[in-house]
Structures are given as C-alpha cells and as structure tokens.
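Notebook, student rotation project (T.W.).
Task set for the rotation: take a protein with a known small-molecule partner, predict the structure of the complex, and write up what can be learned from the model alone. Partner molecule chosen: zinc ion. Sequence and SMILES entered below by T.W., checked by me.
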Amino acid sequence: MAPIHVLRCCQRGLAWIPVIFIALVVCWSYYAYVVELCIFTIQSIGEQGKFFVYLFFFHLSFIMFVWSYWKTIFTKPSNPSKEFCLPKAEKERYEKEERPESQQDILWRAASNLPLYTRTGAGAIRYCDRCQVIKPDRCHHCSACDMCVLKMDHHCPWVNNCVGFSNYKFFILFLAYSLVYCLFIAATVLQYFIKFWTLCRRKSAENCPKNELPDTHAKFHVLFLFFVAAMFCISILSLFSYHLWLVGKNRSTIEAFRAPVFRTGSDKNGFSLGFKKNIVQVFGDQKKYWLLPVFTSQGDGLSFPARLVNTDVEQPTVTLATDISTSPLSESQNRLLNNEVDANNIGGHVENQTLKSGERDHPESETIIYFDKES
Ligand SMILES: [Zn+2]
Ligand SMILES: [Zn+2]
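Predicted structure of the complex:
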C-alpha cells in the first residue's frame, strides 16, 4: 500500500476520536444516572415516585439525543448533481485552456441553463477544480471530506461529518437535545449533588452527623455527573443560540463569515425570506415533524429562493421563489437596488461595504470551518 493511502487511513481513523470520546461520556452518563443515581441512591432512600418519573424523562431525552446525533453523523453530505458537471468535450477544452478568460467563457456557456445566482468575489462562475464541477449556490468544497457539499455550513469534528443541506436540521436537533439532556441531568442531580457535597465536607471535618444518603461510590459518580452536565450545558448553549440565530437569518456559518456575492454585489441577507419562511426552509412546513430527526428541509439543495433573483435578467427563472416579490425590502436590499445602476462601476466598493457590515454581525463560533478560497 502506498504511503499516501496509509496516511489517509490513519487520518480517517483519528478523525473518529472526538466522536468516540462523546460516545464514551454519554455511555458513562447513562450508567451514572440510571445505576448510581436512580437505583443505588434514589431507590435506597425510598423515593419511589421520583425514581419512575426521573427514569421516564431521562430515557425520553436520551433517545432523542442519540437519535439526532446518529443522524448527524451518518447522513452523507449531498453533492452537486450531474447537471453541474461540465460535458466531456467542454471539460477537455477547459483543461487544455490556459487563459482564465477563456476558461470563464466555457463555464459561462455551461452555466447558462443552471439556476445560479452567486458568483466569486470577482464576479466569475464558481468552479471547483478539485471535483471538476460548477458549484451550485451555497455549495462549498470541504477539504476535510474532499468533496463539494451542498449548502455547506461547516465541517464538525464532533460528528466527524460535514454539516450541510442534508443534515443541518439533524445538527440543530442534536444541539437542542444534547442541551435538554444536560439540563435535565443537571437539574435533577443538583439536590443529590448538594447532599453528597455537604456529606463529603463533614466527613473531612471528622464531625459528620448521620446523613440520609448512603456513603458509597455513587457519591463520586453523582458529583462528576453534575460537573460534566453543567460544563456541557454552558458550551452547547452558546453554539445552539448562534445556530438558531443563523436559521432565523437563513445564513450558513460560512455565509455569516463571508456574505454570498450576487450579480448586484454581496448581500449577507441574500437568501433570507423572512423569519418564518427561513425556519420553514430548514424544518419544513409540517410542524409535527419539526422536533423529529427526519429529513423535512425544503428544496433540493441545488438552488435556493433568493430575494433578488427577479432582478437578475441573465439567469433562468427559479420556480422555488414564487412569492418573494411580495416580501418587504430589507435595508441591504434597498441599498443594493439603489446602487444597481452603478454596481458595475463601483462593484468592489459596494461589496467591501457590505462585507464590513456583515463582519460586525456575527458572534464568535466554536466550530471549525474548512472551505476553499475563492478568488
Ligand atoms: Zn469540490
Ligand atoms: Zn467536511
């Protein structure tokens, strides 16, 4: 086996370490809660009512958490369809061609029937040399997965997968249910944590009165359970609130850092259809499925309703956006429409202004992003 293949195999194996770490912590938390807390502690002091209620809600949150985590990890990222590949003859011409302008001509011709509204910063068709494919709107190349991923959000090491169009809903639910799981554990363990904590302190002071809790190894698990649940709660809460904000704005993490560039210039709100419609884009129009990790996101991931598409006369009409013209214009949209006449002359200037205002907008995220640079 060639050394490069061995290296790649090792990299693939090592990439599972964060997932295995999370899985081990979850398995231990299950044992500590069910066996050490519920069976050894709560049952031994005769609190039967609490025993059944705690076990029921614990298992409910545990199942939803594991289900959504599983779906986020094992849902394959969606890739651009065949229509976005260059025809064989065109591809050969593109590869032989050395001048960038002629290469762009080939791409413009090939893209004439594709629903594309975003461009590179220089106004060119976005093309991935690695995958040899014209990138659909919101699609980016992930260097960790080595493929182009539709509506790529970020590559998440904690799920060892790309978070994108195919699993973004699962990822949001994974964050939501892991938060519920940790909050439930922290809230129900707190009273036993305090009892065990005071028991420990009195023991060390060697004047311990008779406590109602048994002084067993359960003490160690309960104390750690509270610390771990509280720690995860704090870290997940910030990430979860950031992604809820992104869903409300219909922005991916990548787009929050670098606004998509349309023909009229870059617009960080270019895909925003209003708060309610933005949520429906990710969670679907049937509310009964919103909390279940089953795929209900709207569209095919290849094209997205954008608010300025009807001003882009050079491109084919996208049927997805039927009622966008009725939505009120946003501040940025108004600005772009006002600047439309001069956009060709001052395109770079407009783009820089929008990017600057976009940069102020996003809070820091804990996620790691891998995506290619576009010139
Ligand atoms: Zn690619
Ligand atoms: Zn990836």
